Amino acid sequence: MENHKKQPPRYKGGRKKKPKAKQNFVVAQIKPGADPSLKKVFAQIGVPEKRKFKPDTFQVEAVLAIETSDCLVTAPTGAGKTWIAEQAIKRVLAEEGRIWYASPLKALTNAKYIEFSNSFGAENVGILTGDRKENQNAPLITGTTEILRNQLYDAMHHGKSLDAELVILDEAHFLGDSERGVVWEEIMIYLPTRISLLLLSATIGNGRHIARWLKSIRSKECFIIEETQRPVPLIPLFFHPSGKLYPLLAGAKAKAKIHKKVLAYMDSKHPPLLAPAYKLPPFGEIIKVLREYDLLPAIFFLKSRADCDNALTRCTETLSKEKKDFLSREIDEIISKQKHIAEHRQMKYLKNRGVGAHHSGQLPLWKIVLEALMSKGLLEAVFATSTVAAGVNFPARSILIFNSDRFNGKDFVPLNPTEFHQMTGRAGRRGMDNIGFAVNVPGKFMNINLIAKLVSSHPTDVLSQIRIDFSMILNLLLSHKPKQIEELLERSFLAWLIKRSRKKKSDQEIVKYGYKHLNKDFTRHLDFLIHKRYAEKTGELTSDGKWASKLRVDQPLMIAECFRLNILPQSDPPLLAAIFASFVNEREFNDAVKEELIPENLLEAFDIVNNNLVHFTQEMAKRKFATRSLFLLPAVVVYHWAMGKSWEDVILISKMQEGNLAMLILRTADNLRHIGALSETFPEAARTAMDAIELIVREPVVIDYRL
After folding, report:
1. Residue 518: which of 189, 153, 147 has the closest Cα?
2. What is the pLDDT of residues 109-150, one digit of tens each?
3. Strands of 33-34's sheet in order across
4. Cβ-based neighbours of 154, under 8 Å, separated by 6 or more
5. pLDDT single digits (tens) 349-379
6. Could you give the number of structural domains in the chain?
7. Boundary (domain end) residue, out of 175, 201, 226
8. CATH number for 113
9. Which of 157, 173, 263, 460 is the most buried (most CB within 10 A)?
10. In angstroms, what CA-CA distances link 663 with 307, 309, 401, 585, 669?
11. What is the DSSP letter of 434?
12. Which residues partner with 414 through β-bridges?
């Protein structure tokens, strides 16, 4: 069940503070209209003429740079970064070399696998994502960054070099991701200098800093190729609640001020509203306005999953019979083999109204269907949370922004330039649109002043997110002495930023904590490994430490202790899957599970693990290491799924959204795969883990990306 803790106060924006007294408001009647100044702008709408492809200057420069050096390319979404990668791949393949193409998302990795298979031949392309391992010896491998990092661990352990001449890191701004940025930084630190590194990103504010850092640790030039020109120009608009469209800004973009008619709305004492506070606006009426001026298809960015789902019910207009029939045929062809998708509760909105909801609570396969339809221009609108803006490729002619803040999991915070650019990067389809539109809609949590500034703001700087964890230290100790690990940490982006901040005092605030803290954290982790006999005092791993290093998961020591204590159900696949569901769960649960749904053998196995780990978790907590509570509900849910219950029944038991349940199952399978790597030390558990994966990775959890 979703965590419905009371959320913190929203960031409120606007031109001026409103009095706390009760407000009078009028809900406007929407009627399509546009300011006369937009006539020339709307006249540009259309499909550009097809021309013979000619690479842009920045593309040519990047291709030349990567032939001899490392290269970081920053360019807007759709500017042609993939073409640069393809040219570099083509050259290395011609020289009979090997390439590793890494991305942060499985969906993006699978899309690139299909794309590259078409471009370079299926026999030359393989994929490694954890879920999929195909054609692993191919000269071109597409995979996730975690898999690449793990291969670098293995190469260092065996005293070898990664078998590649070129590594391409797509979506390189993930270096600054608070959760996964450490993986990107590790790759850049461990990657042998002989292997060329190509970084691609749309949103990095301090690319020159990253390039200088890479040059300092890799002893080779890293060229920075920056392109700021959007391939499809962006026009920011303001949607007045009456349905009239206005330019958001007046004047040149760099010094643009808010349009006077927008200011007039912001300054009015009782401005008309699209809907009362906390109520959804009439999206169907908004779509009518967009249709009137040929601004569809559109992506509506909303604040929550629930809003995305509920927005569908506010789209009341049915498509024409001709459009409906055509769309239905396309959908039926795509989902002909997907029973669960064919019966999706939102299918009626998709087929009859040409709209869909896309968010992390949806089944992965449903999201793939929406992306395929949107990419073909078959939908009028998709309602999505802001997270869809990063790494998913289904642009539209227009995007609509309803909130200038977002919930980051803890607090509501204002959109930063990078997030704003990722959202607006979806506006305007290269080869399909002459111009794209970012339509800003006023409301309780929309700060038009902030949006106006973000239009011309540079992307946010990327900061180091390196941190120490037990999996990292165990794997580095396989091939490095403690002193050598300290030297690796000195090569981190964090260490480089600190050295730079000493020269420039104003930059000190951007560094979260110093290198000494990082070094102390390493020592703290190492001391605990020595204390628990996973490592000797010299830093060399014990036999237990060596097999525990293969547990490249979030809680390697918790799982390792289970093996030491012999408390796992090592011969029962459904039970083993259930226990691991509790380990991978990241969310708090109300563990009030109906007694009749809890099999006795599961409750016994869960209690054995939970009770026996109490002392160990207390010891970790005492030393200020993060621990995670084990909840029974995820175990019950995955157990019933592994035992063959239907998806619909398991959804009812879990009280989770389909996307959350699918993610729980896939992460459980990922962890079980690491148990499969322990075949030499724990052969029975390894076999059982692989059998458990077979039981839980089935429709509708599995995804066919070739839609």
Report:
1. 189
2. 998 999 999 999 999 999 999 888 999 999 999 999 999 999
3. 33-34, 244-247, 234-239, 436-440, 398-401, 298-302, 381-385, 355-358
4. none
5. 999 999 999 998 999 889 989 988 998 889 9
6. 3
7. 226
8. 3.40.50.300
9. 173
10. 21, 19, 28, 10, 10
11. S
12. 405
